[in-house]
UniProtKB/TrEMBL annotation:
It comes from the Bacteria. Belongs to the ABC transporter superfamily. Ycf16 family. PANTHER family: ABC TRANSPORTER I FAMILY MEMBER 6, CHLOROPLASTIC (PTHR43204:SF1). This is Transporter. SMART domains: AAA (SM00382). Keywords: ATP-binding, Nucleotide-binding. One of its GO terms (molecular function) is ATP binding. It comes from Roseivivax isoporae LMG 25204. Residues 2-248 form the ABC transporter domain.
Length: 250
């Protein structure tokens, strides 16, 4: 589904190399987790895949369902089925949550040549999704993320993901700033979206998120490369022993 080959990336302004040859394949129906110390390149990978400005790809490729995504605009990547949940979701004052979501859903449907969702259909679907994620109806009426707690912002992103139904979901440290209850709610939302046609790339520092979102594969990143790959037990090893030995190996 998502295939990354020999990806090299640097910061445009600082001419600083961040990724030094990342190879990664995420299959449909699988959850891959990336762990690693600060500065290892985890978030940079998510930014580059989503099309964030400020990064230059100097070598390598990234394809989603066989399509080269590195040459696409961010909105084209979204229409192709890529979704990024941010570590710190932004507030959008003056834009209602419902308006934002319906515009996003219909923009993607239009880009794929599908008919737009009517107001009635959209309202029915979003109410069902919000109920499943235990999102209060009042949240849907408020401006996007304005005045939301950390947990509410993350749940709102999972609602966006549920409405957009992407093929490839990237979660960039989505557990950041969440208490145990909020993390479980967010994780339950993610788990509800797991199916054979969708892949997940979960970026995290800690094992605790992976207690709730059970990964199929765990990768350890250090100094811009994936230095070790294994099963869920690899995350437990890191939790117990830290990254020192793995960084030394890298």
């Amino acid at each position: 589904m998502l295939e990354i080959k020999n990806l090299h990336v640097k910061l445009e302004e600082e001419d600083k190399v961040i990724l030094r040859g990342v190879d990664l394949t995420v299959e449909a129906g699988k959850v891959h987790a990336i762990m690693g110390p600060n500065g290892s390149g985890k978030s940079t990978l998510s930014y580059v895949l989503s099309g964030r400005d400020g990064y230059e790809v100097t070598d390598g490729s990234a394809t989603l369902l066989g399509q080269d995504i590195l040459g696409m605009e961010p909105e084209e990547r979204a229409a192709a089925g890529l979704f990024l949940a941010f570590q710190y979701p932004v507030e959008i004052p003056g834009v209602g949550n419902m308006t934002f979501l319906r515009s996003a859903v219909n923009a993607q449907r239009k880009a794929r040549g599908e008919p737009e969702m009517s107001s009635t259909e959209f309202l029915k679907v979003i109410r069902e999704k919000a109920k499943e994620l235990e999102i209060d109806a009042d949240m849907l009426k408020r401006p996007v993320n304005v005045g939301f707690s950390g947990g509410e912002k993350k749940r709102n992103e999972i609602l966006q993901m549920a409405m957009l139904e992407p093929k490839m979901c990237i979660l960039d440290e989505t557990d950041s700033g969440l208490d145990v209850d909020a993390m479980k709610l967010v994780s339950d939302g993610v788990n509800a979206l797991r199916d054979e046609g969708r892949g997940f790339l979960v970026i995290t520092h800690y094992q605790r998120l992976l207690d709730h979102i059970q990964p199929d594969v765990v990768h350890i990143m250090s100094n811009g490369r994936i230095v070790k790959t294994g099963g869920p037990e690899l995350a437990l090893e890191v939790e117990k022993n830290g990254y020192a030995d793995l960084k030394e190996t890298a």
